[in-house]
Write a structure and sequence with these properties.
The complex is a heterotrimer of chains A (326), B (357) and C (194).
Chain A: H1 2-17, H2 23-29, H3 34-37, H4 40-68, E1 72-73, E2 79-80, H5 86-91, H6 94-127, H7 133-141, H8 148-159, H9 164-171, H10 185-210, H11 213-221, H12 226-237, H13 239-254, H14 258-263, H15 271-280, H16 285-325
Antiparallel strand pairs in A: 1-2
Helix pairs in contact in A: 1-10, 4-16, 6-10, 6-13, 10-13, 11-12, 13-16, 15-16
Chain B: E1 6-17, E2 20-31, E3 35-39, H1 46-54, E4 61-66, E5 69-70, E6 81-84, H2 96-106, H3 111-124, H4 140-152, E7 158-162, H5 170-187, E8 190-195, H6 198-204, E9 207-212, E10 215-220, H7 222-227, H8 232-237, E11 242-249, E12 252-255, E13 260-262, E14 274-279, E15 285-286, E16 294-305, E17 309-315, E18 323-328, H9 329-334, E19 342-347, E20 353-356
Parallel strand pairs in B: 3-8, 3-9, 6-7, 7-8
Antiparallel strand pairs in B: 1-2, 1-4, 4-5, 9-10, 11-12, 11-14, 12-13, 14-20, 15-19, 16-17, 16-19, 17-18
Chain C: H1 2-22, H2 28-39, H3 42-55, H4 62-86, H5 91-98, H6 103-132, H7 135-140, H8 150-158, H9 164-193
Helix pairs in contact in C: 1-4, 1-6, 2-4, 4-6, 5-6, 6-9
Classes of the chains: A mainly alpha (326), B alpha+beta (357), C mainly alpha (194).
Bound molecules: adenosine-5'-diphosphate and magnesium ion.
Amino acid sequence: MVRAADGKPIAWLSERRTPGATPEGRARQGRGGYFVKYQPSRSSLLMAPALVWLTALMVVPCALVLALAFFRRGIYGGIDYTFTLENFGLVFDPLYAGIFLNSARIAGTATLIAVVIGYAAAYAIAAAPRRWQPVFLFFAVLPFWSNYLIRTYAWIVLLNREGLITQLLRWFGYTGEPPSMLYTEGAVIAGLVYNYLPFVILACYAPLSRLNPELAEASRDLGASAATTLRRVILPLTVPGIAAGAVFVFVLSIGNFVTPALLGGGRFQMIGNLVYDQFLTANDWPFGAALAMALIAIMLLVLMAQALATDRAAGRAAEARGQADG
Amino acid sequence: MSEPRTLLAIDHVSKKFGQVTAVDGISLDIRENEFFALLGPSGCGKTTLLRMLAGFETPNDGRILLDGHDIARTPPNKRPVNLMFQSYALFPHMSVRANVSYGLEMERLPAAEIRSRVDAILATTELVPFADRKPEQLSGGQKQRVALARALVKRPRLLLLDEPLGALDKKLRGAMQLELKRLQHEVGITFVIVTHDQEESLVMADRMAVLKDGKLLQCDTPHAIYEHPADRFVADFIGVMNFVPGKASSDGVVAVNGARIAGKVPAALSPGAPAVASVRPERIRLFPSGETANRTTGTVEALAYHGLDLQLHVRTPLSPKPFLVRVTADAADRRPVASGDQVELGWDAADVRIFEE
Amino acid sequence: MAVVSTAIATLLGTLLAIGVEMRRQYGMGLEALIFAPMIIPDIVLAIALLSFFSMLNLTMGLHTIILAHVVFNLAFVCSVVRARLKSFDWSIVEASADLGASALTTFRRVTLPVIAPAVIAGALLAFTLSVDEFIIAFFTAGAGRASTTLPMQIYAMIRFGITPEINALATIVMAVSITALTLSQRLNRGIIGQ
Ligand SMILES: Nc1ncnc2c1ncn2[C@@H]1O[C@H](COP(=O)(O)OP(=O)(O)O)[C@@H](O)[C@H]1O
Ligand SMILES: [Mg+2]
């Protein structure tokens, strides 16, 4: 998760700020260099090495995992090449389905909290004076730049029974039992929210900062309260950002196994942990593969939902920008 | 006729942004049912003043009285004042109808009343065929009408319009100027319009205020401002004016070349002080017959034919800039002139305005 | 390890980016293929590669980690470079050809210098991600201490609880990250400024 978590914001930032990245930007460029630009054969040649690499080391392995999911587990942990559907059946076994639901619940809660906090933060940043905005954003993504494990470790330092929070409570005169915060579901959720919050902030900041501020003013002018303005004008126009942020948090959370392992102390199984166990402990690769495929299926579903939400909002977002430009 | 009632009194209002004083102690009265224009060059504080009237900025100083009540600190959603934004600020995710209904929904009016009022205003603004379109599917002129309908449907005491025609092309703008005036008459709402286009304000306004650097220079009817500008800046900004720099004397201005321009000298101007005499291009006669108080000769440098009239650039010894002279097509036909010709110009003392330089 | 995978990824990712941007249109498939490595859950890619390598009977070690890291690194490099290319004025390439330069010379003297900041930013990003990446390395490293990456070491240590060693290590990693961060901020500003 680290790479996606760390990388995406940067890719986004540069994409967002480059004028040509938008359709309008491309249109503005006009026809300059048209003939040099479009050379299908040369293009294929340039793309070939990377595509071969991606095919060989991503597509084929993933296909392999898919295939693996249809085989039987060998007696000594190997693979017995007989076709079966029982791995998928097992995914729906109450025990494992429960873990799926549990993962979805934890990921969903983390997503909800991250979206609420992240949207509020993004809103505050977008409302700040222009020249301070980059500074605030910089601090918002700062945690991204330290190692994922170290960030998680920081929470252990914070939450453990003799950790900073306990000591702080003591300092205020609290004498009772130290609260048990580490190795709880709350700790796992807190870890996930903390890790993916910058994503949501960036994803929500982009459309918020491009929203024409006069739209909100127009709403106020027509008699709407601040809350009504948020609900009826600002939120609907920033759905794509919210959706993108939410999808990232959800997808990254549900497949996460490090945070549950470290902050949940192994007591809270999530799908990631389950896959991990099948491959490295239980040695049931076919079942692990089936679980991984289920994970991919969930991811695709979520992505499709996002595409739907974004599509609907795309037109109005473009319009909102157009008005801001004009 | 009885004295018109004051609707909105702006009383010594100032607004500072950090070091910049955007609006500097302005006092103005806006009367019931008038079409009032705020005119001034870019950056003179028109938008800031308008935003204070709408409630988006709070004055640092002064009062804004609507029907005698100070509203300077009333939030925008609690004022019977509506603003039509320069960018129109239509809600892109709502249809035309939804945009127009929005303000009435905020007043929690019954659905039936909302419906009938929206229908009525859509008809007035000729938007019925577009009611179900999204703003992105409208042309510039149509968007402008939606923005107008959205503000008008609330029946505000005061409608504020920030450069409402700025985004339209020239021809459409001309048509919309008349259209706005007709609408204002029809709905009987006080309009305050902001513009940097002096021609626009002359065409539309009942009364207008000229601002510069956050200060009010003059407030009067377009005719009075055109004929009797308060100072040199106003004279230059409104319409076209020919200036003759020099020194004030008891009954006019002595130009640099020693020639005397006769005209009424303001009392504040003591003889010998730097001054400027001015005259409108249409007040200058070509080859004047009979007596005129002021005369000069010059060389025609350029001619521009404008259909109704002919504009001449005439180089004279009176000023470094050529004089602009407008003669009617008739007069030009009677005595044709060409580039390079020597011409004689004359104008009356009553058409001369003298300002402090 | 990170250096090698970054180098390969930067080369392939840049070429891919130019290739994609040269197309008039490209299908959703291509877009998805390039986007997938960034969004696919790490654990899935990790086990996929583990199964793949073990099926091929490949001995796992640093080289398998490199193979794996290039997959996602090239996707990130590609997306950064593509962003830059979207605002690239292709008529300067035409101008260069018009002035008699060969395609290769044009690339070397015109195209590359213009997109260089993006390429470097992409490379830096890839490097950071590689150093940081833990899960895929964990699965594709095989046994043997030689192929242990830093995050793997940290993970092993954290599982034993809080120790002074981790605190020290954490401090060092933070210092390195902040340096990289400052550097890449500079470069990013360079890209945006153009
Ligand atoms: N929100 C603001 N912050 C700082 N300065 C502002 C702000 N709004 C306006 N100004 C400044 O106030 C002055 C008047 O601006 P404005 O009212 O927009 O002028 P106009 O609408 O007449 O062109 C300008 O110098 C402008 O830069
Ligand atoms: Mg303005």
